[in-house]
Amino acid sequence: MPDAAHDLERDERPLPSNLRRDQPLVPIDNVAGRALMAVIAILTFLAALSAGAAVLAARASEQWRGAVANEMTIQIRPDSRRDIEADIARAATMARTVPGITAVQPVPRSESDKLLEPWLGTGLDLVELPVPRLIVLKLQSGAGPDLAAFREALRREVPTAILDDHRLWIRRLSTMASTIILSGAAVVLLVLAAAALAVAFATRGAMAGSRDSVEVLHLVGADDDFIAREFQSRFVRLGLRGGTIGGIGAILVIALLGFLSSRLSAAPEAEQLQAMFGAFEIGWAGYGAVILVAMVVAAIAGLVSRITVRHHLRALAGGAP
The pTM is what? Predict the structure, then answer.
């Protein structure tokens, strides 16, 4: 009789709060859930900014390479034994006869002097300095002029002239852009890995807190798939919330940078930034990358939680503590 009374008393114990009617098995609105959501939001924000920066670098690199690849320059070095103006005129005339060159623009002396102002300052008389003169050549898109023959003819006619086809600059720009893009991708992968680890630890904590509930569910016949789906759905929702907050924050920051860049376009610093990165516009591809990062974070939260739960359930079934 005492054993029967003890069993009756044990059976009349109240169910855990998360097994009561209309209550989720894994609550996400508690302190731990809100803290994990904040962590996911921060990680998503950093990953989205890295993805946006990579897209911005790719767009800027494409613009740089397009502008540089369609231009060449002829540099005329000063020589006291030669008339530099006559050399400029001769080199420009020769360039106009080369197929594939659509425009020839000698740079005036005043503009050449302005190129030195950031280093030498303004108001200086540069007449006595041996400042080279430039001739800008515009190339037809897709055209391949015979540069070897033109360079040889230019060397014979104007010994002080140097033809620069910007190949070295194109290689350097490509290398720099590739480095920035790979660095951004690496940062995104590291942040996603950090998010996966955070979700894994949070899932194990939730499983430890719901151990009694999981045992009760096993007793009433619930299988591992049902329990894993419950945890997965809750962490997917948490990942979506945190990913959405972080993604929206990244989009707002990128849009704010673009707005400030357009408003401060008259400043010299803004002109230099626009020359390097354009108008801070990442385009639809960039915003799509930001949204994709937020979705991937949510998917990782659900996948990692499911794998962690199933591993924990197998450990329980095997008698592990």
Answer: 0.64
